[in-house]
Amino acid sequence: MAQGFSRRHFFYGTLLAGAVPAAGFGSVPSLTRLGYKSPNEKLNIASIGAGGKAHSDLNGCASENIVALCDVDEKRAARKFKEYEKAPKYKDFRRMLDEQAKNIDAVIVTIPDFMHATAANWCMERGKHVYVQKPLTRTVWEARQLQEAANKYKVATQMGNQGYSNEGTRQVAEMIWAGEIGNVTEVHAWTDRPIWPQGLTEIPPPDAVPETLAWDLWLGIADKRPYTSGGKNYPIHGAYFYEPFNWRGFYDFGCGALGDMACHILGAANLALMLDAPTSVECIEKEGNSDFMYPTKSVIRYDFPARGSMPAVKLFWHDGLKDTPKIAGVPDGEILGDLPDIPEPKPAPGAPPSRRRREAYTGMVGDVFNWDTFQKLTTDPNVEKPTPDGSLFIGDKGMITTGTYGENTRLIPVSRMKDYEFPEPSLTRSPGHYRDWIRACKGGDPACSNFNVSAPFVEWMLLGVIALRVGGKLEWDAERMQFMNNPEANKYLKPTFREGWNFA
Prior knowledge:
Helices cover 28% and strands 15% of the residues. With 504 residues, the chain is α/β, with parallel strands linked by helices. The chain starts with 6 loop residues before the first helix and ends in a 14-residue tail after the last helix.
């Protein structure tokens, strides 16, 4: 029987999809009266972060005016600094906001996880819309603070989990709500991450700080410590011991594989199953323990209570994998998660470079499942095996699997897809993750991963990050924002701020 659609459900669905107002983008009168821009007027966007992932985030917003850039690492930021030569450059975002506040409408925040919340809060306090990279925050307290600030200052927000804008993510929800696989009581999600060092047990000796890196500003709110490159075994894929990129593996700076990928891979589950606070979380398997880093491999279990007409569900997160996990009930030979890829043919030696026009980067990731394309993938000898990433929904009438970003959503066994027609859409569709946020900044409806959606999602995800550090089953009380059976775990719900740094 199809799942019932409650009043909350319709609100939730419309909110997630970033529906177009009846009179068009930017037509919501209450927002335009608050000073939001016309849809035809360009935003003035600043970015806290200019290298690494910030590079593609800036590309996604290139239709607007990029008016200021901030990055603590001149070398990493060099390409964007050159591209936007006339934009003022800063190393300290606090100074940028003080000096450029009148020139800025919105800010991209794409820096290490532990600084997301502080930077975003400084922006929202000053009335700036924010696009904040996943996983939004490093702690539960910060997630709640950002949600409250977004509502208090009435700014447009978006978390950078691009899969939330994908067609396949919505298809999962609509299939489950239509009763295609019955009552879903179990979910599995998995990834090959970490692809950076984790589980290390020793910190290498200090080194001189590179001239292009403002190390003290990079540390931000975190406790002071000496810089180290990592020694003779570094860089690894261009990254040194702490930075760039490798900070993900440290308790003090990142959220491990879970924080890096769960906001993508579990996005479909969060939407389709309307997940809220779990009653408990537990790390049930772990390898490669460390006093200061996340483990090399883990399995985490979340237990969610019944939600309206939806039954209780147990959700398993698997990371550090080399192969897709074996899950009971899945027929032999079925491909779960990401599908194999047919590589583009290499150009002949001496051939001129392709002149194919490059489309603007929208933040959309992945394809919609197509039966004929799938048949080619199963017969082409040149297909490339994908990394193990994806999710599986297990219901009492069948299964659904989807890829990393919600792409190639399909029933299992896949033979059920031969003549399958997806349910009639009940969620509106996104124009792309960046455009979704930009139109919200200009007065359109809330973006699909605005903080009223993404902060509660990140909050329950972060409980698993804590479970990686504290053994045993942790019983969660969301209303009190505390674990009821483990005082040690409660120490990790809120960050500490070193002298000279403030959240507000």
